[in-house]
C-alpha cells in the first residue's frame, strides 16, 4: 500500500517509525510547508518530498495519508483527502468545532473510505484490561469516574508558530494534551451527555492565548458523574490518573498500570506480558504502533476501524462543548 505523511513535526516521527515496521507499506511521499523538514524525512525513508498538501494528494496515487499538521488544518485536509478517495489516519483533535465534526463525519460517510483518529491510549494494555472488566459486569455498574492530567509546559514549548495560538492550536490543555484522557473517560465510563466546564490561563499569562488549566463536570450516560481536571502548570509530566468507581470496587489507572481495588480493601496490580514500545515521549503512551497496525489491518481486511469520525469524534465534541460552556457559564448538552 502506498502511504504519505503530511506534517513532519515531532508527532510524525511515531507515524514514520510505526509505518516502517508494517510489511507491504511503502512510504511514498511526505509533505511539510517547511522544505527542510520534508526533505529530511523524505531522505530518511526514501520518499518524495512535497511542500504543499494539495500537490501531494493531486500527484500521488495514495491508499492512505497520515495527517500530523497543526489542529486547524486537520478537518480541512482530511475532507480533501476523503473526497479524492484516499483513506485518512488523523492525529487528534479530528476537529476544532462542533461544525467541523459534522463536516468530517459527512465526508467520511460519503467517501466510502476509512478515517481513523489517533487515540492510541485506548490500546494501552491497562486500558484494554479495564474495558474488559467493565464490559463483563463482574464488578457491577459504573458509579463514578475521576481523572487528572498534571503536566508541565514551559514558555519554550510555545516558541513555534502555532502552539498557544487560538487560530492554529484552537485551544490549550483540553484540545491538545488532555483530550486523550477525556476520550478514555467516556470510553470506559460511558458516553458524555452534558458538561459544565471552566478553563483558564493560570501559568503563562501574556505568553499564550489559550488555556493551561481546565476543570470539567461531566454527566455520563445512566447519570454517572465524572470529574475531570487538567493543567500544564505542574512541575513535571506526571502519570495520568483515571479512577472508575464500580459497585464492587474501583479500577485505577496510573500511567500504564492498572490497580484493581475491591470493596473489602484488596488491591491487585494487573500484570501484562507485552512489553511497551515507545516511539515518542513516555507520557504519550505506547499505543501508537498498535493503533497504526490495527488501522492497516482493517484497510487490508475490509473490517471497520473502530475509532472513526463518529466514535473518535466524541472526544472532540466534548472538548468543543467545554469551551462553549466555559465561555457562556452554562452547562452544555451533548447529542
What does it look like?
By secondary structure, this protein is an alpha/beta fold. Helices cover 31% and strands 24% of the residues. The protein has 2 domains: 2-119, Rossmann fold, CATH 3.40.50; 121-281 and 309-333, Dihydrodipicolinate Reductase, domain 2, CATH 3.30.360.10. The protein is built from 9 helices and 15 strands. It has a 9-stranded mixed beta sheet. Strands 3-2-1-4-5-6 form a 6-stranded parallel beta sheet, with helices on both faces. Helix 1 links the parallel strand 1 (2-6) and strand 2. The two termini are 37 Å apart.
SSE topology sketch:
Blueprint: E1 2-6, H1 12-20, E2 26-31, H2 35-45, E3 48-50, H3 53-59, E4 64-67, H4 74-83, E5 87-90, H5 98-111, E6 115-117, H6 125-136, E7 142-150, H7 179-189, E8 192-200, E9 213-220, E10 225-231, E11 241-246, E12 249-254, E13 257-262, E14 267-270, H8 288-301, H9 313-328, E15 332-333
Parallel strand pairs: 1-2, 1-4, 2-3, 4-5, 5-6, 7-10
Antiparallel strand pairs: 7-11, 8-9, 8-15, 9-10, 11-12, 12-13, 13-14
Helix pairs in contact: 1-8, 4-5, 7-9
Beta strand count? 15
Low-confidence stretches: 278-284
Rg (C-alpha, Å): 20 Å
Based on the coordinates given, report the CATH architecture of the largest domain. 2-Layer Sandwich
- N/C terminus separation: 37 Å
**CATH topology term of the largest domain:** Dihydrodipicolinate Reductase, domain 2
Structural class: alpha/beta
Q: What is the arithmetic mean of pLDDT?
A: 95
The CATH H-level homologous superfamily of the largest domain? Dihydrodipicolinate Reductase, domain 2
**Strand-residue proportion:** 15-25%
For the report, how would you describe the main beta sheet?
Answer: 9 strands, mixed
Series of H and E elements: EHEHEHEHEHEHEHEEEEEEEHHE
Q: Could you estimate the helical fraction of the residues in percent? A: 25-40%
Number of helical regions: 9
- Name the strands of the widest sheet in spatial order: 14-13-12-11-7-10-9-8-15
CATH class of the largest domain reads Alpha Beta
Overall form: globular
This entry's quaternary arrangement is: single chain
**Tally of distinct domains:** 2
